[in-house]
Every structure is written in structure tokens, then in C-alpha cells.
Amino acid sequence: MSIREAVMNALYDAIHRAVVYLPPDVKQAIRRAYEEEDNPAARAQLEAILRNIELAEKTGKPLCQDTGLLTLYVELGKRFPLPDGFHEIVAEAARKATREIPLRPNSVHPFTGRNTGDNTGRLVPYIHWEINDGDELKITVVPKGGGAEAVSMLRLPPPGKGVENVVETVIDAVLEAGAKPCAPLIIGVGVGGGADIAMILAKKAAALRRIGERSPDPSIAGLEEKLLEAVNSLGIGVMGLGGSHMVLDVHIEYAHRHPANYPVAVAFQCWAARRATAIVSSSGEYRVYQ
Amino acid sequence: MTVHHLSTPLSEEDVRGLRAGDIVYLSGIIVTARDAAHRRMIEYIERGEPLPIDLRGLAIYHCGPVVRRKNSEWEIVAAGPTTSARMELYEATIIEKLGVRMIIGKGGMGARTAEACRRHGAVYTVFTGGAAVLAAEAVEKVERVEWLDLGVPEALWVLRVRDFGPLLVAIDSHGRNLIEETLLRARERREAALSIARKAIEG
Description:
heterodimer; A: alpha+beta; Dihydrodipicolinate Reductase, domain 2; 2 domains; 39% helix; globular; B: alpha/beta; fumarase; five-stranded mixed beta barrel; two-stranded antiparallel sheet; 7 helices; 9 strands
């Protein structure tokens, strides 16, 4: 198999896996929420979610109709022989996935309203690049839905209040989001950098980090745990029907900030936290995992 | 929490018999509509032009499905609800002018929709967000599709369903709005929640 073919197949398989199967950490966290929840309306919703996950696995259908705006997080080893026309390979995989899995066509021109029909378009699928010293290509596919995306929040409060800014922004973002995103959710918080960096950190924290994985910094890890307890104490619950399991986890990532700015970004990941990673070796073998 | 099995066309009496918190399993015809379809419905209403389907007594489903074409038949692959709040702009007018009896979505709707439900005899129900395969299982047949020029997610998909549910009545026709009530309580708990989180920074 040529490297080009391997990359194409790896990408297609990763998209396919991501939209049909939930990662094990997410499934387990939803099951735990179901077992612990006392509110009958919320329990009924969690039960429907669990049945839906099983049905998707059994039928091979996408577990949610919103198969997202395709986003790729790529880690490129500098010794990996990246084939020419990588962006075209990505577009081809997106078109094939749209046709064959199938995916919902979700790429719309913001000014004309025209849907391209194949999940490609200007800067779509979007690719985040990181380069390392290795010899592999690692691609994580995140088909993140639009409902949870719509309640993302970015604030740049005066830095004087310090970490209090993080606490207030997260609680207010959750109150503002209300029942709109499909809970149980994973909340990603990006602190510092500029406006752009804070939001990228927040989205990575929400969509890439595994549930239960804490920040390596103990004081930030403590804040993650207290924020989780705090947001669930609001009692919004699953789908706004009450109960204590609106949020499965809170993940915080940070960057150093400018003295005049304290950017805080909040990204929401719905329970259908779809991600799959493909690793392509420089000899053209690949594997996909979640 | 009473469980009801209802069929379209829904009468005003059917709908007035539902209370917030009840569960409905719906059979008959539901029609998907999202932002663009709602906008176009309003244009039709303003021009006094009839819609390609008479929605009287039917249910509107806030949903943009994944579909597949098999020979000449459409198949609904996945069809969970989309966020209803975006349709708040239009829904009261649509309930009033088109005689829709049930709105199905997720995430809740606002005061204008709730007032239209109360005045004209309609309900807003929620289906589990993201449970798209479960929803698709209830679809027996795609009767037809209209306004496909708006794109697959935005078109009006006319679906024959059987026991579609559980649909939880979130806004009834007697003035209750369950999700609004939950959010009101949550806003009252803001200070208490802030104090919990501050414990992490006070050490």
C-alpha cells in the first residue's frame, strides 16, 4: 500500500469509527451517571442515550445525526514521508465518508448559505498541525456537533480578579448554555494566551482529553474537581430536566498570558464525544484506536 | 407522569389532556423543519400561500437527519433533535397560523412559544438529544421530501413514525414550562455554586 493510500484509508477508518462508536472512557462515564442519577426524568434520558449507543454499534449507523464539522488534530513526525497533496487526500476521505457511511453534509458557505453537500469547503475539514521529532503521522478526528459548539464562550475580563475570572466565566457559561447542548457534557476551559489560543486550548480540553484525566498541576486539578461539583450543583441535569449529572468532567488547559489580558474560553462537548485516532507508520501501516 | 400513546392528526382535546412531565409515544406523520425551513414557512404565511404540506394537527420535529437514497426510496439513517431555541423566533406564528399541535425538539423553548401553546392548544415535547439511531428506528417510511433546495438538513422530511418516543412534555397548554423552571432555579443557585468552586482557589 502506498503512503497516500494508507493515509486515505486511515483517515476514512478513523472518521467511520468516530461517528459510530463512542470512546470507552465516555461510554463508561455515561453508564456511571445513569447508575448514580436519582431524578427519574434524567434517568430516562440517560437510558435512551445508552440504548442509542448500543443501537449505533449494532447497526453501524452514525450515533448522532449531527456528524459535525470535521476537524483534524494532526501530529506530524518530521521523518514521516508526508505525501504530496495532503489536503486533497483529506478532502477525498471526507467526500467518501459522506457518501458511504453516510455523514450529514454540514459544510455551509457563511454568506450564500450554500451547502457543498460533501463536508468539504474553504478551510474544511480544518487541520490543526503540530510537528514532532518522530517518524509517524498521528491524526485525531473530531466530528464535533453544532449544538454544543453554539454555546461556546470567550471572555477577556480585566486580570485584577485572577482565578476568580475562571470560576465566574465557567459558571456563567453553564447558566447561559442551559439545556441547549446535549448533556451530559464535558467542559473544556482554556485560560491565558490570546483570544485565539484560549479557545483552541478549551476545545482541545473538551474534545481530546479523556474523562477522568486530571491536569498534572495539582492546584489546577483541584479547580477542575471543584468546578465539576459546582456546575452540577446548579441542578440543570441532563437535557435541562434536573438531576445532578449535567457534566461528566471539567478539563482546564492554560498558556501564559499578556499582563493586560486574562482570556478565559469555555468549550462544551456533548455526550456524543466522538474522537478516533489513526497512526500511520512511515512504512505505510496504520492502526485506528479510540 | 402519565404515559400517552397518540396518533396524528392530533386534536385540541388530545393536546389539552397532556401535562408537563408526561410522556408521549407518537404515531403518524411528523415533519422535520429547522432554521431555514421555518424562515420559509413564515414567508409563505406572509404571502398567504399554502405550504406544500398541510401541518394542521401534525407535529413539527426540529431535526436535520442523515439520509441515504436506496434506489428511488429515501432511508432515514439517523435523526435526533436539534436545539429548539433557534426556532423560538418563528414558532409562535407557526403554531397560530398553521395549526401545528406538537413541536418536538430539545433544549427548551421560550415564553412566546409557551404562550402560543397555551392560547392555541399545542405542546412542546423533548426527545433525547443525540439519540439519533433510536429516533430513526421509529421511522417507518419517508412519505416525501419538500424544499430539498434548502439542503438535506434543512428540507421538510415528511415522516411516517410508529411509537416515536419517549417524548417528554416540557411545555404544556396550561402554562407550565419545565425546562424554564429548572433554569430559573439554577440561576438562583449561582452564588452557592461560585462558593463551591472558590474553595479550590482559597486553598
